Each structure stands twice: as C-alpha cells, then as structure tokens.
Amino acid sequence: MRWPVGLGRGLGRALGRKLGRALIWAAVWAAPSCGGGCISATTTGPSSSPSSSQSSSPSSPPVAALAPPKVASINAGPGVMVQLEPHLVPGHVTIIDFWAQWCAACKTIEAELLTELRDEPTVVLRKVDVGAGDSDVARAYRLGGLPHLRIFDRRGRLRYVLVGEDAHQAGEAALVLAREP
C-alpha cells in the first residue's frame, strides 16, 4: 500500500489501518438536516444585497477576507449536475459529501463531521444532493453507494474517497490533511 505524501511511514500505516480499503488514489453539505447552518452556493451570504455585505466602518475586513462558510450546498437541486473544482476552497481541506435526503447514514456522517471539525477552521464541507435513483450527478461521478465522501487537500488534490462505513473516518482523514504544511 502506498501512503499519502507527507504523512511519514508510521503515521501513514496507522491511518491506513483505520481507513483500510477506503483509501483510493484518484483525481472528487445545504441540506435541510444541517440545522440551518448551511448556505446555498447561489447566495452571497446572509443578505444578497451587495451594500449590506460591506460595513461603513473603515476597520471592517474586506468581504474577500472573510472565512468561507463551513457548510454549503453546491448544486441547484437534488440530482442536478455540478462541477466540483470551482467549489474547492484554496488553502482549505475540502470535503465533498455526496448525500441524499432518504439516506439515514448520510445524515449520521454529517452530524459526526460537524462535531469533529467544528474547531478546525481550515476544513470546509460542500454537499451535493444526488437525489433519488440514477441522477445525472450520480452517473457523472460514478457513485456506487452512499454515503460517498471525497476529500481534497489544501492544493485541491483528491486524497481520499470514502464510501459506506468507511465514511466514518472522514473527520480523522481531514484533520490529518489540515495539519500538513
């Protein structure tokens, strides 16, 4: 088994044992269940008005300097196709969570991730609702089962693909990537 670059042999082996077969080398969250803390990728923030996003105070940081939202939906609706690359946040570990409303395990994974990663500002979650059945997005990304998570490092490189029970290891894998230089 090849270990992720930068992990070192010992840590790589330990992580490899936990992730098992889920570690796949390859080039790939505003759900009603996220408790209202999500935003849609089509919104610009708390208000869609451009004037409301800037403060009259000269000491306020520019809008571009604000941190990206922790959780965001990146497709327009269930099963609607979406390109992932524009939603990878530079300098942040990005977890793409392919989920469906009917998937109870997906909701469990979401809750686990929000708990595990709440104190890690450099990890963001992006949700893709695959809808029901054989949707365009499920076919395009060859999703064989749910939950299905793809974890990208700070440079936008796909590092982990976790499917089914292995998705429970996503928080730990993301934290390892967040600690890499």
Structure notes:
This protein has helices at 9-19, 104-117, 136-140, 170-179, and strands spanning 39-40, 71-73, 93-99, 123-129, 148-152, 158-163. It is an alpha/beta fold. It contains four helices and six strands, in the order H-E-E-E-H-E-H-E-E-H. The chain has a single domain, classed as Glutaredoxin. Residues 1-58 and 60-64 have low confidence and may be disordered. It starts with 8 loop residues before the first helix and ends with a helix. Helix 2 (104-117) runs parallel beside helix 4. Strand 3, helix 2 (104-117) and strand 4 form a beta-alpha-beta unit. The chain is globular and about 40 Å long. It is 22% helix and 17% strand. The protein has a six-stranded mixed sheet, covered by helices on one side.
Q: What's a quick, concise take on this entry?
A:
This protein has 181 residues and is α/β, with parallel strands linked by helices. The protein is built from four helices and six strands.
Topology of helices and strands:
Elements (H helix, E strand, L loop, with lengths): L8 H11 L19 E2 L30 E3 L19 E7 L4 H14 L5 E7 L6 H5 L7 E5 L5 E6 L6 H10 L2
Parallel strand pairs: 1-2, 2-4, 3-4
Antiparallel strand pairs: 3-5, 5-6
Helix pairs in contact: 2-4
